[in-house]
Protein backbone atom coordinates (compact mmCIF):
# COMPACT_ATOMS: atom_id res chain seq x y z
CA UNK A 1 0.00 0.00 0.00
CA UNK A 2 2.97 2.35 0.51
CA UNK A 3 3.54 2.30 -3.24
CA UNK A 4 -0.01 3.59 -3.78
CA UNK A 5 0.54 6.48 -1.34
CA UNK A 6 3.82 7.33 -3.06
CA UNK A 7 2.17 7.37 -6.48
CA UNK A 8 -0.56 9.65 -5.13
CA UNK A 9 2.06 12.16 -3.99
CA UNK A 10 3.67 12.18 -7.44
CA UNK A 11 0.32 12.76 -9.14
CA UNK A 12 -0.69 15.56 -6.77
CA UNK A 13 2.65 17.30 -7.31
CA UNK A 14 1.99 17.42 -11.06
CA UNK A 15 -1.65 18.50 -10.96
CA UNK A 16 -2.48 22.20 -11.46
CA UNK A 17 -5.33 23.99 -9.72
CA UNK A 18 -5.08 27.19 -11.78
CA UNK A 19 -8.31 26.24 -13.57
CA UNK A 20 -10.96 24.09 -11.87
CA UNK A 21 -14.14 22.84 -13.48
CA UNK A 22 -17.40 24.16 -12.01
CA UNK A 23 -18.43 20.52 -11.55
CA UNK A 24 -16.27 20.51 -8.44
CA UNK A 25 -18.66 22.98 -6.79
CA UNK A 26 -21.77 21.09 -7.96
CA UNK A 27 -20.87 17.91 -6.07
CA UNK A 28 -21.97 17.35 -2.49
CA UNK A 29 -18.63 16.08 -1.18
CA UNK A 30 -20.15 15.33 2.23
CA UNK A 31 -21.99 12.28 0.92
CA UNK A 32 -20.56 8.94 2.01
CA UNK A 33 -20.56 7.38 -1.46
CA UNK A 34 -20.21 9.54 -4.57
CA UNK A 35 -20.07 8.34 -8.16
CA UNK A 36 -18.86 10.43 -11.12
CA UNK A 37 -19.69 9.03 -14.55
CA UNK A 38 -18.45 10.37 -17.84
CA UNK A 39 -16.91 9.59 -21.19
CA UNK A 40 -13.16 9.16 -21.54
CA UNK A 41 -11.17 12.36 -21.65
CA UNK A 42 -13.64 14.75 -19.99
CA UNK A 43 -11.45 15.26 -16.90
CA UNK A 44 -12.74 12.95 -14.16
CA UNK A 45 -9.27 12.01 -12.89
CA UNK A 46 -8.12 15.65 -12.84
CA UNK A 47 -11.24 16.60 -10.88
CA UNK A 48 -10.50 14.04 -8.14
CA UNK A 49 -6.85 15.07 -7.80
CA UNK A 50 -7.75 18.77 -7.76
CA UNK A 51 -10.31 18.20 -5.02
CA UNK A 52 -7.74 16.37 -2.91
CA UNK A 53 -5.12 19.07 -3.47
CA UNK A 54 -7.52 21.90 -2.66
CA UNK A 55 -9.39 20.35 0.26
CA UNK A 56 -7.45 17.43 1.76
CA UNK A 57 -3.80 18.34 1.31
CA UNK A 58 -3.35 18.65 5.08
CA UNK A 59 -5.00 15.24 5.56
CA UNK A 60 -3.00 13.13 3.10
CA UNK A 61 -2.16 10.57 5.77
CA UNK A 62 -5.87 9.67 5.85
CA UNK A 63 -6.53 10.19 2.11
CA UNK A 64 -5.85 7.84 -0.79
CA UNK A 65 -6.38 8.18 -4.53
CA UNK A 66 -5.94 5.02 -6.59
CA UNK A 67 -6.86 3.89 -10.07
CA UNK A 68 -8.37 0.41 -10.16
CA UNK A 69 -6.47 -0.48 -13.31
CA UNK A 70 -3.26 -0.29 -11.23
CA UNK A 71 -1.18 -3.47 -11.41
CA UNK A 72 -1.32 -3.60 -7.60
CA UNK A 73 -4.83 -5.05 -7.92
CA UNK A 74 -3.63 -8.04 -9.91
CA UNK A 75 -2.58 -9.60 -6.60
CA UNK A 76 -4.74 -7.66 -4.14
CA UNK A 77 -8.45 -7.04 -3.75
CA UNK A 78 -10.19 -3.73 -3.24
CA UNK A 79 -11.72 -5.02 -0.01
CA UNK A 80 -8.28 -5.90 1.36
CA UNK A 81 -7.00 -2.42 0.49
CA UNK A 82 -9.91 -0.74 2.24
CA UNK A 83 -9.57 -2.91 5.35
CA UNK A 84 -5.85 -2.05 5.62
CA UNK A 85 -6.45 1.61 4.79
CA UNK A 86 -9.09 2.07 7.49
CA UNK A 87 -6.97 0.26 10.09
CA UNK A 88 -4.24 2.81 9.42
CA UNK A 89 -6.61 5.75 9.91
CA UNK A 90 -7.94 6.10 6.37
CA UNK A 91 -11.01 8.35 6.02
CA UNK A 92 -11.16 9.53 2.38
CA UNK A 93 -10.87 7.06 -0.50
CA UNK A 94 -10.91 8.04 -4.17
CA UNK A 95 -11.31 5.19 -6.66
CA UNK A 96 -10.72 5.92 -10.35
CA UNK A 97 -11.78 3.72 -13.29
CA UNK A 98 -13.92 1.32 -11.22
CA UNK A 99 -15.26 -0.32 -14.39
CA UNK A 100 -11.79 -1.85 -14.85
CA UNK A 101 -12.22 -3.86 -11.65
CA UNK A 102 -14.32 -7.06 -11.69
CA UNK A 103 -17.31 -7.15 -9.35
CA UNK A 104 -16.74 -3.50 -8.42
CA UNK A 105 -20.37 -2.86 -7.47
CA UNK A 106 -20.59 -5.70 -4.97
CA UNK A 107 -17.35 -4.70 -3.26
CA UNK A 108 -18.41 -1.04 -3.10
CA UNK A 109 -21.70 -2.09 -1.50
CA UNK A 110 -19.82 -4.14 1.10
CA UNK A 111 -17.40 -1.27 1.78
CA UNK A 112 -20.30 1.16 2.24
CA UNK A 113 -22.05 -1.18 4.67
CA UNK A 114 -18.96 -2.31 6.60
CA UNK A 115 -17.10 1.01 6.99
CA UNK A 116 -19.66 3.69 7.95
CA UNK A 117 -16.99 6.31 8.77
CA UNK A 118 -15.22 6.02 5.39
CA UNK A 119 -16.06 8.44 2.56
CA UNK A 120 -15.66 6.99 -0.93
CA UNK A 121 -15.67 8.74 -4.30
CA UNK A 122 -15.49 6.63 -7.46
CA UNK A 123 -15.35 7.40 -11.16
CA UNK A 124 -16.14 5.26 -14.16
CA UNK A 125 -17.29 5.01 -17.72
CA UNK A 126 -20.57 6.53 -18.92
CA UNK A 127 -21.69 2.92 -19.24
CA UNK A 128 -21.64 2.26 -15.49
CA UNK A 129 -24.98 0.82 -14.43
CA UNK A 130 -25.64 2.06 -10.93
CA UNK A 131 -29.33 1.19 -10.95
CA UNK A 132 -28.98 -2.20 -12.60
CA UNK A 133 -25.74 -3.35 -11.05
CA UNK A 134 -26.00 -6.70 -9.31
CA UNK A 135 -25.34 -4.96 -6.01
CA UNK A 136 -27.81 -2.10 -6.25
CA UNK A 137 -25.95 1.08 -5.34
CA UNK A 138 -28.79 3.44 -6.22
CA UNK A 139 -29.89 3.76 -2.59
CA UNK A 140 -26.32 4.33 -1.41
CA UNK A 141 -24.48 6.36 -4.04
CA UNK A 142 -25.04 9.95 -5.13
CA UNK A 143 -24.14 9.85 -8.83
CA UNK A 144 -23.08 12.79 -11.01
CA UNK A 145 -22.54 12.92 -14.74
CA UNK A 146 -19.62 14.87 -16.16
CA UNK A 147 -19.08 16.01 -19.72
CA UNK A 148 -16.44 18.05 -21.54
CA UNK A 149 -15.75 21.76 -21.30
CA UNK A 150 -18.61 24.14 -21.97
CA UNK A 151 -17.87 27.16 -24.16
CA UNK A 152 -17.90 29.28 -20.97
CA UNK A 153 -15.30 27.03 -19.31
CA UNK A 154 -13.22 27.07 -22.48
CA UNK A 155 -13.15 30.89 -22.45
CA UNK A 156 -12.23 30.94 -18.76
CA UNK A 157 -9.42 28.44 -19.35
CA UNK A 158 -8.17 29.97 -22.59
CA UNK A 159 -8.43 33.68 -21.74
CA UNK A 160 -8.33 33.74 -17.94
CA UNK A 161 -11.83 35.19 -17.65
CA UNK A 162 -14.18 34.40 -14.78
CA UNK A 163 -17.57 34.12 -16.46
CA UNK A 164 -20.28 32.52 -14.30
CA UNK A 165 -22.77 30.00 -15.60
CA UNK A 166 -26.25 31.16 -16.58
CA UNK A 167 -29.57 29.40 -16.15
CA UNK A 168 -31.76 28.70 -19.18
CA UNK A 169 -34.49 30.99 -17.85
CA UNK A 170 -31.96 33.78 -17.37
CA UNK A 171 -30.73 33.41 -20.95
CA UNK A 172 -34.26 33.44 -22.35
CA UNK A 173 -35.33 36.47 -20.32
CA UNK A 174 -32.12 38.52 -20.14
CA UNK A 175 -29.93 37.47 -23.07
CA UNK A 176 -29.49 41.06 -24.31
CA UNK A 177 -28.08 42.15 -20.96
CA UNK A 178 -25.71 39.18 -20.73
CA UNK A 179 -24.41 39.51 -24.29
CA UNK A 180 -23.60 43.18 -23.66
CA UNK A 181 -21.69 42.35 -20.47
CA UNK A 182 -19.76 39.49 -22.09
CA UNK A 183 -18.91 41.39 -25.27
CA UNK A 184 -17.45 44.23 -23.21
CA UNK A 185 -14.89 41.80 -21.77
CA UNK A 186 -14.20 39.55 -24.75
CA UNK A 187 -15.33 38.90 -28.32
CA UNK A 188 -16.82 35.40 -27.97
CA UNK A 189 -17.21 34.84 -31.71
CA UNK A 190 -13.45 35.22 -32.08
CA UNK A 191 -13.02 31.99 -30.08
CA UNK A 192 -16.20 30.10 -30.95
CA UNK A 193 -14.95 28.29 -34.07
CA UNK A 194 -11.78 27.21 -32.24
CA UNK A 195 -13.89 25.73 -29.46
CA UNK A 196 -16.03 23.81 -31.95
CA UNK A 197 -12.89 22.29 -33.49
CA UNK A 198 -10.69 21.63 -30.47
CA UNK A 199 -11.94 22.95 -27.17
CA UNK A 200 -14.25 20.33 -25.69
CA UNK A 201 -11.78 17.93 -24.09
CA UNK A 202 -9.63 19.58 -21.38
CA UNK A 203 -6.46 17.90 -22.68
CA UNK A 204 -6.50 20.21 -25.73
CA UNK A 205 -4.09 22.48 -23.81
CA UNK A 206 -1.41 19.82 -23.47
CA UNK A 207 -0.27 19.19 -27.07
CA UNK A 208 -2.43 20.95 -29.64
CA UNK A 209 -0.83 19.18 -32.60
CA UNK A 210 -1.69 15.78 -31.09
CA UNK A 211 -5.25 16.67 -30.11
CA UNK A 212 -6.96 14.91 -33.03
CA UNK A 213 -4.92 11.74 -32.63
CA UNK A 214 -5.70 11.67 -28.89
CA UNK A 215 -9.42 11.90 -29.64
CA UNK A 216 -9.08 9.07 -32.17
CA UNK A 217 -7.34 7.04 -29.48
CA UNK A 218 -10.14 7.86 -27.03
CA UNK A 219 -12.79 6.75 -29.56
CA UNK A 220 -10.91 3.50 -30.17
CA UNK A 221 -10.62 2.80 -26.44
CA UNK A 222 -14.37 3.32 -26.01
CA UNK A 223 -15.27 1.06 -28.92
CA UNK A 224 -12.60 -1.62 -28.61
CA UNK A 225 -12.34 -1.90 -24.81
CA UNK A 226 -15.30 -0.37 -22.98
CA UNK A 227 -18.11 -1.61 -25.25
CA UNK A 228 -16.86 -5.23 -25.35
CA UNK A 229 -16.13 -5.15 -21.59
CA UNK A 230 -19.33 -3.50 -20.38
CA UNK A 231 -21.84 -4.26 -23.15
CA UNK A 232 -20.38 -7.51 -24.55
CA UNK A 233 -20.19 -6.07 -28.07
CA UNK A 234 -18.32 -8.42 -30.42
CA UNK A 235 -15.07 -6.86 -31.65
CA UNK A 236 -16.05 -8.01 -35.14
CA UNK A 237 -18.69 -5.24 -35.24
CA UNK A 238 -16.44 -2.40 -34.03
CA UNK A 239 -15.41 -1.38 -37.55
CA UNK A 240 -19.09 -1.22 -38.51
CA UNK A 241 -19.78 1.11 -35.58
CA UNK A 242 -16.89 3.32 -36.74
CA UNK A 243 -18.46 3.35 -40.20
CA UNK A 244 -21.74 4.42 -38.61
CA UNK A 245 -20.04 7.28 -36.73
CA UNK A 246 -18.51 8.53 -39.98
CA UNK A 247 -21.93 8.58 -41.65
CA UNK A 248 -23.40 10.55 -38.72
CA UNK A 249 -20.51 13.03 -38.74
CA UNK A 250 -21.07 13.93 -42.40
CA UNK A 251 -24.85 14.26 -42.22
CA UNK A 252 -27.00 17.40 -42.33
CA UNK A 253 -28.00 16.37 -39.55
CA UNK A 254 -28.48 12.60 -39.48
CA UNK A 255 -32.08 11.38 -39.76
CA UNK A 256 -31.75 7.61 -39.69
CA UNK A 257 -33.47 5.30 -42.15
CA UNK A 258 -32.89 2.15 -40.12
CA UNK A 259 -33.74 -0.30 -42.90
CA UNK A 260 -31.39 1.28 -45.47
CA UNK A 261 -28.67 1.86 -42.90
CA UNK A 262 -28.74 -1.72 -41.65
CA UNK A 263 -28.38 -2.94 -45.24
CA UNK A 264 -25.55 -0.51 -45.97
CA UNK A 265 -23.36 -1.50 -43.05
CA UNK A 266 -24.46 -5.13 -42.82
CA UNK A 267 -26.10 -5.25 -39.36
CA UNK A 268 -29.64 -6.45 -38.76
CA UNK A 269 -32.21 -3.90 -37.64
CA UNK A 270 -32.45 -4.78 -33.95
CA UNK A 271 -28.68 -5.04 -33.56
CA UNK A 272 -28.28 -1.65 -35.23
CA UNK A 273 -30.81 -0.04 -32.88
CA UNK A 274 -29.02 -1.60 -29.92
CA UNK A 275 -25.68 -0.23 -31.12
CA UNK A 276 -27.19 3.23 -31.62
CA UNK A 277 -28.27 3.06 -27.98
CA UNK A 278 -24.82 1.87 -26.83
CA UNK A 279 -22.80 4.55 -28.63
CA UNK A 280 -25.03 7.20 -27.05
CA UNK A 281 -24.50 5.62 -23.62
CA UNK A 282 -20.76 5.65 -24.08
CA UNK A 283 -20.74 9.35 -24.93
CA UNK A 284 -20.11 9.36 -28.68
CA UNK A 285 -23.56 10.37 -29.93
CA UNK A 286 -26.75 12.05 -28.79
CA UNK A 287 -30.08 10.59 -29.90
CA UNK A 288 -33.28 12.62 -30.19
CA UNK A 289 -36.68 10.96 -29.82
CA UNK A 290 -40.19 12.22 -30.40
CA UNK A 291 -41.19 11.20 -26.89
CA UNK A 292 -38.92 11.58 -23.89
CA UNK A 293 -40.67 9.03 -21.70
CA UNK A 294 -40.39 5.28 -21.94
CA UNK A 295 -37.50 5.21 -24.42
CA UNK A 296 -36.41 1.63 -25.08
CA UNK A 297 -33.12 0.30 -26.40
CA UNK A 298 -34.86 -0.77 -29.61
CA UNK A 299 -36.67 2.50 -30.26
CA UNK A 300 -35.74 4.37 -33.44
CA UNK A 301 -34.29 7.84 -32.81
CA UNK A 302 -35.63 10.69 -34.94
CA UNK A 303 -32.26 12.43 -35.20
CA UNK A 304 -28.70 11.52 -34.23
CA UNK A 305 -25.83 13.90 -33.52
CA UNK A 306 -22.24 13.29 -32.54
CA UNK A 307 -21.92 14.02 -28.82
CA UNK A 308 -19.76 17.08 -29.43
CA UNK A 309 -18.49 19.05 -32.41
CA UNK A 310 -14.82 18.16 -31.83
CA UNK A 311 -15.68 14.59 -32.83
CA UNK A 312 -16.94 15.88 -36.19
CA UNK A 313 -13.67 17.62 -36.98
CA UNK A 314 -11.69 14.51 -36.08
CA UNK A 315 -13.84 11.93 -37.89
CA UNK A 316 -14.53 13.98 -41.00
CA UNK A 317 -12.49 17.20 -40.95
CA UNK A 318 -13.12 18.09 -44.61
CA UNK A 319 -16.86 17.40 -44.61
CA UNK A 320 -18.26 19.09 -41.50
CA UNK A 321 -21.70 20.49 -42.25
CA UNK A 322 -22.15 23.88 -40.60
CA UNK A 323 -25.84 23.36 -39.88
CA UNK A 324 -25.10 20.02 -38.26
CA UNK A 325 -22.27 21.57 -36.24
CA UNK A 326 -24.56 24.34 -34.95
CA UNK A 327 -27.26 21.91 -33.87
CA UNK A 328 -24.76 19.49 -32.32
CA UNK A 329 -23.30 22.32 -30.21
CA UNK A 330 -26.74 23.41 -29.06
CA UNK A 331 -27.79 19.84 -28.18
CA UNK A 332 -24.55 19.22 -26.29
CA UNK A 333 -24.66 22.39 -24.20
CA UNK A 334 -28.36 22.51 -23.39
CA UNK A 335 -28.77 18.74 -23.09
CA UNK A 336 -26.39 18.51 -20.14
CA UNK A 337 -29.02 19.79 -17.71
CA UNK A 338 -32.24 19.86 -19.75
CA UNK A 339 -34.47 17.33 -21.47
CA UNK A 340 -34.45 17.50 -25.28
CA UNK A 341 -37.00 15.92 -27.59
CA UNK A 342 -37.57 16.03 -31.31
CA UNK A 343 -39.87 18.92 -32.27
CA UNK A 344 -42.66 18.64 -34.82
CA UNK A 345 -42.20 22.35 -35.51
CA UNK A 346 -38.80 23.95 -35.04
CA UNK A 347 -35.66 21.96 -34.33
CA UNK A 348 -35.84 21.16 -30.61
CA UNK A 349 -38.40 20.94 -27.81
CA UNK A 350 -36.81 21.58 -24.40
CA UNK A 351 -38.25 20.53 -21.03
CA UNK A 352 -41.61 20.01 -22.76
CA UNK A 353 -41.99 23.82 -22.73
CA UNK A 354 -39.65 25.69 -25.08
CA UNK A 355 -39.24 25.39 -28.86
CA UNK A 356 -35.96 26.37 -30.53
CA UNK A 357 -35.06 26.86 -34.17
CA UNK A 358 -31.29 26.88 -34.78
CA UNK A 359 -29.72 28.55 -37.80
CA UNK A 360 -27.35 31.14 -39.19
CA UNK A 361 -27.09 34.91 -39.17
CA UNK A 362 -30.29 35.53 -41.17
CA UNK A 363 -32.47 32.84 -39.59
CA UNK A 364 -36.08 34.02 -39.26
CA UNK A 365 -39.09 32.76 -37.31
CA UNK A 366 -40.93 31.22 -40.27
CA UNK A 367 -40.76 27.67 -38.86
CA UNK A 368 -41.91 28.64 -35.37
CA UNK A 369 -44.35 31.45 -36.05
CA UNK A 370 -47.37 31.46 -33.71
CA UNK A 371 -45.76 28.89 -31.39
CA UNK A 372 -45.79 29.80 -27.71
CA UNK A 373 -42.39 29.99 -25.93
CA UNK A 374 -40.47 29.74 -29.21
CA UNK A 375 -37.01 31.21 -29.88
CA UNK A 376 -34.56 31.64 -32.75
CA UNK A 377 -30.98 30.61 -31.99
CA UNK A 378 -28.59 32.27 -34.47
CA UNK A 379 -24.95 31.67 -35.22
CA UNK A 380 -22.56 34.48 -36.19
CA UNK A 381 -24.29 37.22 -34.15
CA UNK A 382 -22.82 38.98 -31.12
CA UNK A 383 -26.06 40.32 -29.67
CA UNK A 384 -29.63 39.08 -29.64
CA UNK A 385 -32.90 40.93 -29.99
CA UNK A 386 -36.28 39.94 -28.52
CA UNK A 387 -36.70 36.20 -29.25
CA UNK A 388 -33.48 35.90 -31.29
CA UNK A 389 -30.55 34.68 -29.19
CA UNK A 390 -26.87 34.14 -30.12
CA UNK A 391 -25.94 30.48 -30.38
CA UNK A 392 -22.69 30.92 -28.44
CA UNK A 393 -24.55 32.16 -25.34
CA UNK A 394 -25.99 28.67 -24.77
CA UNK A 395 -22.42 27.65 -24.06
CA UNK A 396 -22.77 29.44 -20.70
CA UNK A 397 -25.35 26.97 -19.34
CA UNK A 398 -22.78 24.96 -17.36
How would you summarize the topology of this molecule?
Elements (H helix, E strand, L loop, with lengths): L1 H13 L8 H4 L6 E6 L5 H12 L7 E5 L10 H10 L4 E5 L7 H11 L4 E6 L17 E5 L4 H9 L8 H18 L2 H11 L12 H21 L6 H12 L8 H8 L3 H13 L3 E4 L14 E4 L2 H7 L6 H14 L4 E3 L5 E3 L3 E6 L14 E5 L9 E3 L8
Helix pairs in contact: 8-13, 9-13
What does the radius of gyration come to?
22 Å
**From the helix content, strand content and strand pairing, which structural class follows?**
alpha/beta
Number of strands: 12
Query: Which quaternary structure do these chains form?
Result: single chain
The secondary-structure element order is HHEHEHEHEEHHHHHHHEEHHEEEEE
Q: Taking all residues together, what is the mean pLDDT?
A: 94
Please describe the biggest sheet, giving its number of strands, its sense, and whether it closes into a barrel.
Answer: 5 strands, parallel
- Helix content class: 40-55%
Largest sheet strand order: 2-3-4-1-5
- General shape: globular
Tally of domains: 2
Could you explain how this protein is built, in words?
This protein is of the alpha/beta class and 398 residues long. The chain folds into 2 domains: 2-146, P-loop containing nucleotide triphosphate hydrolases (Rossmann fold); 153-396, no CATH class. The chain is built from 14 helices and 12 strands. It has helices at residues 2-14, 23-26, 44-55, 78-87, 104-114, 151-159, 168-185, 188-198, 211-231, 238-249, 258-265, 269-281, 309-315, 322-335, and strands at 33-38, 63-67, 92-96, 119-124, 142-146, 285-288, 303-306, 340-342, 348-350, 354-359, 374-378, 388-390. It has a 5-stranded parallel sheet. A 5-stranded mixed sheet has the order 8-9-10-11-12, covered by helices on one side. It has a two-stranded antiparallel ribbon with strand order 6-7.
Amino acid sequence: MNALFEKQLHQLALISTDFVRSTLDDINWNARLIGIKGARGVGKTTLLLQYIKLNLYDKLESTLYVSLDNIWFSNNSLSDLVDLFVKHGGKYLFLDEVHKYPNWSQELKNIYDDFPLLKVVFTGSSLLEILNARADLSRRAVVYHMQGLSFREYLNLERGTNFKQLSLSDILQNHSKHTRIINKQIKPLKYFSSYLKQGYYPFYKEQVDLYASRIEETINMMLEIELPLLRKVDLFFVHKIKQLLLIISESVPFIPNITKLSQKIGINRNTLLLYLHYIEEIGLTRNLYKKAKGISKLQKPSKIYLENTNLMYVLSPLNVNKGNSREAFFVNQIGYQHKITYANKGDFFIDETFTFEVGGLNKNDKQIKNIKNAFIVSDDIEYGYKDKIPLWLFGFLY
